[in-house]
Design brief:
single chain; Rossmann fold; Immunoglobulin-like
Length: 257
C-alpha cells in the first residue's frame, strides 16, 4: 500500500517554510515518463501540481528562484512573470546539484543559450498534423515567444559596437566589437543572424554563426564572421551581431550587407 499526503496540506506546509525563508528555491520540471524518444507530449505546460506550487510560492512575496528540469521547452508563464530568477538545468549528470548550487551562489557565471524556442502556449504552434515550417521555430514564428531561441543571461553585462560588413570575391566578412561593461569577468556567446529575404516562404532570420568568448571586466574584443558565397543572396540582407536574436532588450548591433 502507498499513501501520498494531500496536495493542499503539502502546499500549505511549503508556504509556511517560504514565509520563514529569505529566498525560496522551487525545483520543477519533467522526467522520462513525460517526455522522451517516441513519447510525444500532448501539452507544454508544467504539470498542474507544480504550476500551483510555483504560484503559491510567488504569492508569499518572498524572492523565488525557479529551477527547471526538462529536455525540451516548457510554458512556464507564471514563473516567467513572477519569479525573481529562473535557471534552466535541463537533465544533468551526477554533478548537476553542484553546478546548480555554484551558479545560484554566483561562484559560476553562466553563459548558456537556449537551443530551442520556449513558446507561451500551444496556441503559438501550428497543428501537429501540419508538417510545414510556417509558424514553427524562431525562423518562422511571427508572434512573441516566452523565451526566444538563443536567449540567455549572465552575471556579467556586454555591449556591442563597431559593426562592419564587406562582400568579397570569396563571400562576406562581418566584424563587430564586444565589450564587457560589468565589473566581473564572464563568457559571452556572440551570435550572427541574417534576414530580410523577400521570398514568400523565406525565414524571418537565421543563425549563421556563433562564437563563445571570455572577457575580463572592461575588456573589448573584435569578433569576425565569414559567410561563404552560397549563403549570400544578390539583394542586400539584414545583419545582426549580438548576445541573441535582435529582439527586445538583447544587446546587439544591426546593419545591411
Amino acid at each position: 500500500m502507498n499513501w501520498i499526503p494531500p496536495a493542499a496540506v503539502m502546499l500549505a506546509e511549503a508556504g509556511k517554510v517560504a514565509q520563514d525563508s529569505d529566498v525560496t528555491l522551487v525545483f520543477v520540471g519533467l522526467n522520462g515518463s513525460q517526455e522522451g524518444e517516441g513519447h510525444d507530449r500532448s501539452a507544454i505546460d508544467l504539470p498542474e501540481p507544480q504550476e500551483s506550487l510555483v504560484k503559491a510560492m510567488i504569492a508569499t512575496g518572498k524572492p523565488v528562484v525557479v529551477v527547471l528540469t526538462s529536455g525540451s521547452a516548457v510554458a512556464i508563464n507564471s514563473a516567467a512573470a513572477g519569479a525573481t530568477a529562473m535557471l534552466s538545468a535541463w537533465y544533468g549528470g551526477e554533478e548537476a546539484g553542484t553546478a546548480i548550487a555554484e551558479t545560484l551562489a554566483g561562484v559560476n557565471n553562466p553563459a548558456g543559450r537556449l537551443p530551442v524556442t520556449f513558446y507561451k502556449s500551444l496556441d503559438q504552434v501550428p497543428a501537429f498534423t501540419d508538417y510545414s515550417m510556417k509558424g514553427r521555430t524562431y525562423r518562422y514564428l511571427k508572434g512573441e515567444p516566452l523565451y526566444p531561441f538563443g536567449f540567455g543571461l549572465s552575471y556579467a553585462s556586454f555591449a556591442y559596437s563597431g559593426l562592419s560588413t564587406k562582400r568579397t570575391a570569396t563571400g562576406a566578412e562581418i566584424h563587430a566589437t564586444v565589450t564587457n561593461i560589468s565589473s566581473r569577468e564572464g563568457d559571452e556567446v556572440v551570435q550572427l543572424y541574417i534576414g530580410g529575404d523577400v521570398e514568400e516562404d523565406a525565414p524571418i532570420r537565421s543563425l549563421r554563426g556563433f562564437r563563445r568568448i571570455h572577457l575580463a571586466a572592461g575588456e573589448s574584443r573584435e569578433v569576425k564572421f565569414i559567410l561563404p558565397p552560397e549563403e549570400l543572396p544578390k539583394n542586400k540582407m539584414e545583419i545582426s551581431v549580438g548576445g541573441g536574436q535582435p529582439v527586445g532588450t538583447t544587446p546587439h548591433v544591426s546593419g545591411l550587407l
